[in-house]
Amino acid sequence: MQYVVVDLEWNGSYSKKAHGYFNEIIEVGAVKVSEDMVVLDEFQTTIRPVVSKKLSGIVTDLTSITAEDLEDGTTFTGMVKQFTRWLGKEPTVILTWSTTDLLVLMENCRYFYGQQEIPGLQYYMDFQAYAQQRMGVDSAQQLGLARAGEMLGIPEDNMSLHRALDDSRLTAAILQKVYDRESFLPAIQPVDEEFYPRITFKVTIIKDLDDPLIKRSELCFNCPECGQNMKRKGNWRFRSRAFCAEFSCRRCDKRYTGRAQFRLKYEGVEVRKKLNPILPSEEQTATESEPETV
Question: Which site among 41, 125, 154, 290 is 20 to 30 Å from 94 CA-CA?
Answer without folding.
Answer: 154
